[in-house]
């Protein structure tokens, strides 16, 4: 009888080990599949068309960084000073090009460029700033954030920023005309007069 119980316990232990190995193997397969799906979804080359980046030509790139990096919270992923011959001139062009990401380094990237970075006294840096509002010929940068209440005080204090409206509740018709979408919307000009919205979604974009 003792031998019987010893054999039974041995079988149970082996079965338990087999189950653990099978579970680990299944977990590894699931993780691999999920990883491949995430990688594919983040790979812009799998898409037919991608809006890669919007680049702003700026007067003072440090002021722009103070807003987009320090206040809004974007992350610098590229920052280079580039020197090259200037066409039609005997001087060298020195420009600074910066890319910032919000959540993805391939799409929705914001570019900042100062084409006269090497010449602080160049007239480009003193070109008048136009605050033309929401009129034809002007684009709008729209950000969505879950931390609008934290970032807004930093935006207000950012040098060169001109506030249009502080965060306020705004409603839009839902997709397909069903329901509404509530959004906390704020509007302002950046240091170069580009229009910016910093918003926080309060409802899902699609009807439930």
CATH domain fold name of the largest domain: 2,3-Dihydroxybiphenyl 1,2-Dioxygenase, domain 1
Low-confidence stretches: 22-41
Name the CATH homologous superfamily of the largest domain: 2,3-Dihydroxybiphenyl 1,2-Dioxygenase, domain 1
Q: Number of helical runs?
A: 3
Question: What is the name of the CATH class of the largest domain?
Answer: Alpha Beta
Descriptive overview:
This protein has 208 residues and is α/β, with parallel strands linked by helices. The protein folds into three domains: 2-42; 46-127, 2,3-Dihydroxybiphenyl 1,2-Dioxygenase, domain 1, CATH 3.10.180; 128-208, 2,3-Dihydroxybiphenyl 1,2-Dioxygenase, domain 1 (Roll). Helices cover 30% and strands 32% of the residues. It has three helices and eight strands, in the order H-E-H-E-E-E-E-H-E-E-E. It has helices spanning 2-42, 61-71, 148-157; strands at residues 53-57, 75-85, 92-101, 109-114, 140-144, 162-173, 180-189, 195-201. Strands 1-4-3-2 form a four-stranded mixed sheet, covered by helices on one side. The radius of gyration is 27 Å and the shape is globular. Mean pLDDT is 84; it is low at 22-41.
In short:
This protein has 208 residues and is an alpha/beta fold. 30% of the residues lie in helices and 32% in strands.
Main attributes of the structure:
alpha/beta, four-stranded mixed β-sheet, 3 domains, globular, about 30% helix, 2,3-Dihydroxybiphenyl 1,2-Dioxygenase, domain 1
């Amino acid at each position: 009888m003792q031998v019987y119980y010893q054999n039974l316990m041995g079988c149970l232990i082996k079965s338990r080990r087999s189950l653990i190995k099978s579970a680990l193997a299944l977990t590894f397969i699931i993780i691999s599949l999920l990883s491949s799906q995430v990688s594919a979804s983040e790979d812009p080359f799998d898409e037919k068309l991608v809006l890669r980046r919007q680049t702003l030509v700026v007067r003072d790139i440090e002021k722009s960084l103070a807003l987009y990096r320090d206040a809004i919270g974007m992350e610098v992923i590229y920052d280079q000073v580039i020197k090259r011959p200037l066409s039609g001139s005997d001087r060298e062009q020195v420009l600074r090009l910066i890319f910032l990401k919000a959540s993805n380094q391939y799409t929705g990237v914001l570019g900042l460029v100062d084409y006269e970075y090497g010449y602080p006294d160049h007239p480009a840096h003193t070109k008048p700033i136009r605050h033309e509002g929401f009129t034809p010929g002007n684009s709008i940068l729209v950000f969505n954030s879950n931390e609008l209440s934290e970032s807004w005080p930093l935006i207000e204090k950012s040098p060169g920023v001109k506030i249009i409206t502080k965060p306020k509740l705004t409603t839009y018709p839902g997709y397909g005309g069903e329901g509404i979408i509530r959004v906390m919307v704020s509007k302002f000009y950046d240091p170069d007069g580009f229009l910016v919205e910093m918003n926080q979604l309060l409802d899902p974009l699609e009807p439930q």
